[in-house]
Amino acid sequence: MGIIIGIDLGTTNSLAAYIREGKPQIVPGRDGNLLVPSVVSFDEKQGVLVGNAAVNRLLIEPERTIYSVKRLMGRGPEDVKEDMKWLPYAISPESSQVVRVVVGDRQYTPPELSAFILKELARSAEKLFNQKITQAVITVPAYFNDAQRQATKDAGKLAGLDVLRILNEPTAASLAYGLDRKKEGNIAVYDLGGGTFDISILKVRGGIFEVLATNGDTHLGGDDIDHLLMNLVRDELKISHGIELTGRTRTEREFLQKIRKAVISAKHRLSSHETARITVDFSDFTYQRELRRDEFESLIEPIVQRTLDPCRRCLRDAGFSPGDLDEVVLVGGATRIPLVRRRVEELFRRKPHTELNPDEVVALGAAVQADILGGLRQDMLLLDVTPLSLGIETIGGVVSKLILRNSTIPASAVEEFTTFVDGQTSVDIHVLQGERELAKDNRSLARFQLKGLPPMPAGVPRISVRFLIDANGILSVSAHEKRTGKEASIEVKPSYGLTDEEVEKMLFESIEFAEEDFRMRQVIESRNDADTILSATQQALESPEAAMLEEAEGQRIRGAVASLQKAYQGEDPKLIRDRIDELNEATLHLAELIMNRAVQSALKQND
Ligand code: ADP
Ligand code: MG
Questions:
Q1: pLDDT of 172-216, one tens digit each?
Q2: Could you tell me if the CB of 266 is within 6 A of ligand 1?
Q3: Among residues 69, 199, 212, 269, which one has the fewest Cβ atoms lying within 10 Å of its Cβ?
Q4: What global pTM score does this model have?
Q5: Domains, the chain, with CATH or none
Q6: Mutation choice for ligand 1 from 70, 121, 140, 268, CB with most ligand atoms inside 8 A
Q7: In ligand 1, which atom is closest to the CA atom of 221?
Q8: What gap in Å lies between CA 188 and CA 171, rounded to an integer?
Q9: What's the gap in Å between 504 CA and the centre of ligand 2?
Q10: Cα 421 to Cα 395, 418, 451, 461, 464, distances in angstroms
């Protein structure tokens, strides 16, 4: 049985964890840091960079450096319009159902981009365990809909990982705190990360978790604080220097990224200090500003407040008042902010857990779940709920809900429908997700047809529609007409998801391009070696020993230099290597002469 790792695939940071001797531990990234920033950068020379190496390029190559890709997972171009105003990279105007991020002359879907991050995490784990990692548990915000969960699974597949379970982040955090060992209790998990806010209320009893209710906001987190501070700086730049940064030109985008970096570091400092300085170097002047914690707190108060209503709604859905809670768990880097901690404590009237690093608890909990799936701890069963209601469109564009929000999953429901026109031979089934009454106000997940019905009078056919949500929260829908036995069981293809064929194609392409990437690396490495030998030869030709060479020998060296320089222009690593060998051979005698002098002068010095 191979090792199963737990992965927190975050908007801002991702990390992997595993269980060693019963204790969850973080897999260190290849650069030694525990958190791997969820950033992927495409460099013409160095290929694909992930994590901190990519973050370093946010300023230099903003349009080739992709961050916050989790915001794009399982979403369509319309969903991400607001985000794209802020993100320095572009999405293809040809994006139809699935967003496609443009990088140079290539396009990547969000699952492909996430796969680079997952591969990086898996590689770190492989290095640690010295064995191939092929299985993982990946966490997602409880609010993620079907398409987003599916996209996350696709990302795992593209990274060569068998995703054994998609786990809700709050469930993972509770596991990390070992709250499963409580005899009985009610837990609120407040998770404010970079891009998502999640509040969940769980019940634990006899080692079993049940998510009673979830709420939150898929567009609320530390990023919003960053945007707010960026706006502050932009406004001040406009007033004091008349500079307006719209992000239209590359230089402007680079400045915006600089501002972003500066405000984030000030924000972090303010969690443990009373003041911070925002410093941004522009080409002709330096912007500086002192930010006090109280000033910062009044700026971000509205953002923190925006988290409180979902908390109240969640309590209400669970049928609780704050006094019913036994534990409050803080998750996400943004919960390090003292104001956030104060507001959470005031609302729930309870001191929240902060013993574990809030950036790590989700990955640690994913490792616990991985361990359970690995069969070592079968004592525990996890129950989750579906965050939104699911149903189908019926006559008049009204939604008939089959599975209500906050139902425990896995769940299934069957309902019977009929036709409303005489002689109808096919029925459209429109699958919807959401709480609104009218189909047009809900999210359209899929449409399919039950065809080939014999003509019958309206109201006679008995069409039974079955919904099934599996343990990962992924939905499948089937329909069948009972009198004729006609069936149309389609796999729900979420509107913004990728088809199996598309995923296969990407897998194929990633292998294909891996070869190209590999070849490019060979070219780069051979050019680097060529640089070394060319400059060494240049120096040697200027040495006194060069004058001692015969004319023909000198000519041979210069000829070899010229052919290496020519090969250098091309992209054939083998040719470059061959020319390097030739030059090495041609300079052998000269190198010997120089070596002799070096040895002699060294001997002299020792005398
Ligand atoms: P995600 O789950 O979205 O990947 P994380 O849990 O890693 O996010 O949290 C990332 C967010 O936490 C970022 O907005 C980051 O700036 C913020 N953050 C991290 N450390 C601190 C800190 N010391 N003070 C305030 N915010 C912080
Ligand atoms: Mg998170």
A1: 999 999 897 888 899 999 999 988 899 999 888 766 677 788 898
A2: no
A3: 269
A4: 0.67
A5: 4-221+299-384 (3.30.420.40), 386-498 (2.60.34.10), 501-606 (1.20.1270.10)
A6: 268
A7: 14
A8: 10
A9: 29
A10: 11, 9, 15, 11, 17
